[in-house]
From TrEMBL:
InterPro entries noted in UniProt: Cell_Envelope_Assoc (IPR051599), DUF218 (IPR003848), Rossmann-like_a/b/a_fold (IPR014729)
Species in which this protein is naturally found: Micromonospora wenchangensis
GO cellular component terms given for this protein: plasma membrane
Domain of life from the UniProt record: Bacteria
Domain called DUF218: residue spans: 47-154
Protein name: DUF218 domain-containing protein
Gene3D superfamilies in UniProt: HUPs
CDD domains reported for this sequence: YdcF-like
One of the Pfam families matching this protein, by short name: DUF218
Amino acid sequence: MPTNPPAIPAEHRADVERLWNYHHMHHEIRPVDVGIGLGSHDLGVAKIATDLYHQGMYPTLVFTGANAPTTIGTFPRGEAVHYREYAIAHGVPADAILIDTQAKNTGQNIEHTRALLTENQVQARSVILMSRPYQQRRAYATCKQLWPEVDVICASHPLSLDDYVTSIGDTRKVMDMLVGDTQRIDMYAELGFAIPQHVPDDVRAAYSRLVDAGYTSRLV
């Protein structure tokens, strides 16, 4: 008997959609100097990075990421390593890819990428920062804090919320991580890890309701 695809509980759908839409930056994609794929549990990062390379959006692609508790099972050799393997298998030349296998958070993703580009004498005045969909806003805010002079465009593999949940195969994981990334918008700005971002009242209310409902495993 076929298994039903994972589904967002009806009573939480509106709040999940509100957070999902908030974290998308809705940037227009255009050619840049470097593409940067941020490691996570989501292979969609490697997919969009590969697609945009083939569209001529950048000549150099960086994948950055070690492992985290949420990724070790999916990418046992490390996030950046698996992303690189996917990109090469789908036609990206190996010599167009640089990888950082040590970064364990978004700040390190940015710092290590800058160092890697400097080491390889690649000038980056503009970048496309590719992440899981609900990491876009936090990735943007982190990059602008640590690399303020670079022009940043955010992108993710273009899936609807429901298709994304199906691709991950774990509704609870997606909802918990959406809540966790929302918490980090304010928290990381207060800690100096990221620039401040406006959080609308309806987003704050949706976040609070999901916390009260117990979607808290990714809270700091």
